Structure prediction request, 236 residues.
Amino acid sequence: MLIDGFTIFAQIVNFLILVALLKHFLYQPILKAMEQRESNIKNRVREASLQLENAENQALIYQKKQRELEAKKEAWLSDAQAEVREEKERLLQQVKEEVEEVKLVLSQQLEREKEAYLDNFQQQISQQVISITRQILKDLANRDLEEEIINVFRQGLTDKKLSLSEPIIIKTTFALTSEQQQKLLEVLAQNQVEFQTLPGLICGIELSNQSYQLTWNVEQYLQGLEQALKCKSYLA
Prediction:
């Protein structure tokens, strides 16, 4: 088989032309596309790295904020618990003070009621004692006691050395005999004397005119005792 040099040369030229055409129209675009793709990949990797770094930073910030929130939460809980304890103690103290105040008011009220009851009871007892004493003295009154009253009253008039010119009224709880009236007239040296009976005096006698009065009777002493008991009860 004969080798045609022209044919070989033509094939070589065709091959070179084909290579040149492939390089110009196919290989260069492929290289550019690959370079562009590589550049895009690098950019994406760079962006991904930046996003990852940003995400990590955000995660760190979030974790920091979460720790701060946890710390604040603990502080808030601690403060809230402290406030609750303080409020509880304050309310308990307030309740104790109110209870003590109510106890004091009730105690004072009971004491006042007790004192009022005792005062009333004492007044009733005093009045009953005086009433019984008054009745006993009325029941015990007799001629001997009446005569002694006249003698005591005559002695009092003698000691006072009275000189009365105006008409005189003598009141007694019992009717005076003429002899008893005469004894009193002798002391008074006065003829204008009127004798009256006044049962309310209780074993007593009273001398009076327009300008003077002299009284001696058990009722007077009993009234003084009753007034003294009332004053003592009031002061207590």
